[in-house]
Each structure stands twice: as structure tokens, then as C-alpha cells.
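To the wet lab folks,

You asked to see what we're planning to order before we commit. Fair enough. Below is the target structure as C-alpha cells, and below that is the sequence we designed to fit it. If anything looks off to you, flag it before the synthesis order goes out.
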């Protein structure tokens, strides 16, 4: 079983649109959305949710009013100002436990906090594992790991040979959790100054974890000079450019209609994504 992860150094490069387009082309696969802070792959795949599961992150402090003496020690030690009038605001609480240790009456306990949900869904393009982290909740890396584990379990049950994962943008904890141990990471970039800068950062991260990478330049024809700079950089770094996708109004129309591009268009961008998929299959066969 192989894992293809699609990531980007920054948001807005078209990563999720490309994942949805690949999902409509690939056979014998399981899909996963590891962008748990802002999951949106499901918007293009029209899933029917089959299983809803709770996700618990770090523990949060809870004060028992019947035991609390109002001594104020918890207020003194809480550096996050999460306690007001001897009640804990769970949004501000970081779960450090300092208040529990300081409380002389034992009125404070650390209790599991419901931080979000994860789902197993059926789509016209295959099974999908996705999740939604609650507002201001932490442990997104832990939830990403859970999504990946469930995607692997589904792939084994269904004898699927491939997992296609929509990864988070950037280079933070959820990206690291998505990246570790995958077969190939496809990095989607755009021909802009920010696109080039963040491409270099995410490639450095992948190199640190020794993950093979390939690059896709989206909307490459909008800034040919910047595209040539990215191509030269990848050439010098011996990194494969698996595809280049032109600007195409069909992409916007596909998004408006909430369908994968390759399921509704045979335009220039859709043809480029098909060529990208052909290139990725060759790349995966060599790994």
C-alpha cells in the first residue's frame, strides 16, 4: 500500500482542488483529509457520512464549586488567565495542570476535553476519512495521526493499493504528522514570491524526514518568469516537476458546482491534471 500526500507551503495554491481531481481519476484507493483545522475536501466529494466519532484532545481544568474555598491560588498560578470568578474558561485553558497542583483543597480536576470529531464517509470516488477540529482547539497533529491510521485501516480492509491524502498547508505540527512515512509528497505551488518562498520551506521539511517529493506548479501561465525561477530551482535541487496546470475558468466552475474538475471538464486544466496523474503513477511505481 502506498500513500500519496498532497501538500503546499502556503494556503490557496489549489491543493484541495487537485486532490479532488486526482480522486476522480484514481482507482482502488482510499481518501483522507488531514487538513483538520479547515477541512474542505468533503465539499467537492459529496460524502455520505457513515460513522461519526468523538476526538478528545488535551485535558482541561474543572473546578468543583462545592469543594472550592475561594483561596485564589489557582488565579495566581494560571498564566493563561483562564480562571475568572473560580470558573474555568475552556477556550483559554491550556491543560497545563498548574492550578490543580496549586489547589490546597483538591477542588480542581483535569478532565478530557471534546476537541472535535472525525468521520468515515462514502463518496462517489471512494471511502473518505476526514475530521473537524473545534474552534481554538489544539492537538491537531494528534487528530491528523488518527485520520491517517483510520485511512490505513480502511485501505487494508478494502484491499486498496493507494491512499490519497489532502494535507494541511504550511510546515507546522499537522504537516509533520501528515508527512512522516508517506510514499510520495506532491507539493503544489504557485508562481508568486510567496509561493516560491514557502515551496522551499516545505521541501526542506520533506527532506528532513527523507520523504520523496515531486512538485506541481498551479496556474503556471499567469507569471511565466516566476515559473521559470521555480523550474530552475527544482532542476538544481534534482526535484521532479510532475506537472504544470494552466489557469482555466473551468476550475472555478467546478468549484461553484462542488464537483472535481476532472469529473466535469475536458479543458486545459483538466488535461493537465490527467497528465499530472500519469506522471505521479510512474513516480510511484519507481518507489
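Sequence we intend to order:
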Amino acid at each position: 500500500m502506498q500513500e500519496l500526500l498532497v501538500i503546499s507551503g502556503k494556503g490557496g495554491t489549489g491543493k484541495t482542488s487537485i486532490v479532488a481531481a486526482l480522486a476522480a481519476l484514481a482507482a482502488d484507493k482510499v481518501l483522507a483529509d488531514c487538513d483538520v483545522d479547515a477541512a474542505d475536501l468533503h465539499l467537492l466529494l459529496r460524502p455520505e457520512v457513515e460513522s461519526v466519532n468523538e476526538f478528545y484532545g488535551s485535558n482541561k481544568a474543572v473546578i468543583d464549586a462545592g469543594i472550592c474555598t475561594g483561596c485564589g491560588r489557582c488565579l495566581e498560578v494560571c498564566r493563561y488567565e483562564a480562571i475568572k470568578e473560580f470558573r474555568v474558561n475552556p477556550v483559554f485553558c491550556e491543560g497545563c495542570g498548574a492550578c490543580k497542583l496549586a489547589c490546597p483543597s483538591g477542588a480542581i480536576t483535569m478532565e478530557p476535553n471534546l476537541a472535535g470529531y472525525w468521520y468515515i464517509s462514502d463518496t462517489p470516488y471512494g471511502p473518505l476519512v476526514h475530521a473537524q477540529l473545534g474552534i481554538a482547539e489544539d492537538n491537531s497533529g494528534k487528530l491528523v495521526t488518527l485520520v491517517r491510521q483510520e485511512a490505513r485501516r480502511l485501505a487494508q480492509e478494502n484491499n486498496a493499493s493507494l491512499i490519497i491524502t489532502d494535507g494541511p498547508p504550511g510546515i507546522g505540527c499537522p504537516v509533520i504528522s501528515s508527512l512522516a512515512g508517506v510514499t510520495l509528497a506532491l507539493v503544489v505551488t504557485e508562481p508568486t514570491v510567496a509561493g516560491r518562498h514557502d515551496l522551499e520551506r516545505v521541501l526542506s521539511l520533506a527532506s528532513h524526514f527523507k520523504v520523496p517529493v515531486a512538485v506541481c506548479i498551479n496556474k503556471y501561465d499567469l507569471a511565466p518568469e516566476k515559473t521559470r525561477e521555480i523550474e530552475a530551482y527544482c532542476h538544481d535541487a534534482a526535484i521532479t516537476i510532475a506537472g504544470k496546470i494552466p489557469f482555466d475558468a473551468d476550475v472555478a466552475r467546478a468549484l461553484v458546482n462542488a464537483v472535481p474538475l476532472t469529473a466535469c471538464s475536458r479543458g486545459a486544466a483538466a488535461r493537465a491534471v490527467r497528465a499530472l496523474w500519469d506522471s505521479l503513477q510512474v513516480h510511484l511505481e519507481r518507489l
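Structural context that might help your review: The chain has a mean pLDDT of 95. The longest strand covers residues 114-123.

Thanks,
Computational group
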